Amino acid sequence: MKTTKARILVAAVLVVLIGLGAGGYWWFAKRLPDGVALRVGGVSVTDQQLDEQIQTLSALYGVQPPPATDQPRLDKFRRDVAKSTAVAMAIDNVATERKIGVADRQVSDFLAKYVASQYGEGQAGRDAYVKDLADKSTSEPKVLAELKRQITLKQLFDQITSDITVTDEDVRQTFDQRKAEFATPERREIHNIVVKTKEEADALAGELKAGGNLEALAPRRSIDGSTKDTGGNLGLVAAAELQKSYADAAFAVPIGGIFGPVETVRNSGPMFNVGKVVRSQPGAPADFDKIKDGVRRLVISERAEAKWRTFMEKTIKSADVDYAEAYRPADPDALPPPPNSGPGASGPDGQPAP
Asked: Which of 277, 284, 272, 232 is nearest to 252 (CA)?
């Protein structure tokens, strides 16, 4: 089965898209019936239905709840899922009012491409996908329903933001104001081993600093299934692509240097990393002619986001959202957070986001 990296990245994008502008809710303190987690516009979501939604998100995007032994994190996770579900339901209502529809065939075609990309081509890929659904206690109809919701959401977003325009002058002005941001940063090739405890990481760091071979040890010692068989190679990465604590350590040592242990956090909890900097690719100042098309896309994206935010603020203010006390978010006006993982800001097990 292929790495869950792509699924986690998709999850991050979708959660952010659902959450854009999720401020200004009408939150009511009315008590809901036992077994009901939340209600949007008179439509209730039970505890069981919310659990089933978590299972579906796990199958599609690799989103995993914290372990039952970590009750504070598990409680926050469930409240965040309830919030995301409420926002998504409010958006569904708007899409219905605007007569946005998605054909079942379109959803099925999307699922087929998804299965091929994440599990492999042909019957073998299909069998692996079906087994994954069973392992996560969800079903294909639930997966199809979730995918249909996301395709509908994308169509609504496109409809709301279709009139965004950007001039050549806007592009040049943005470039001039943000040259430092657009410069090519230094990138480093990092080889990394992930272990579960600080004691393991301390011992590993000592072994490597005494001359041990990280690439030879990675297959036997690393718990990062996506990099252990390639000597822990994360590829060439910039500091901005990594969790800050990991980036600070990785970019502070000279080429050939060993760093760590560095603690990072992913969905399953804290992990400890020991790494080596193999080589460096120097940074370079931004060249307007080379990146102007990308700057244009960035400005369009930022303006679209701002318009979407304004639209959602107006929409959600009219939504009737109730939570059971066990699911009420600590900060209902905050955006639903994307999943956390690995040294990479979005990648699992030490991988950076691409």
From this structure: 277
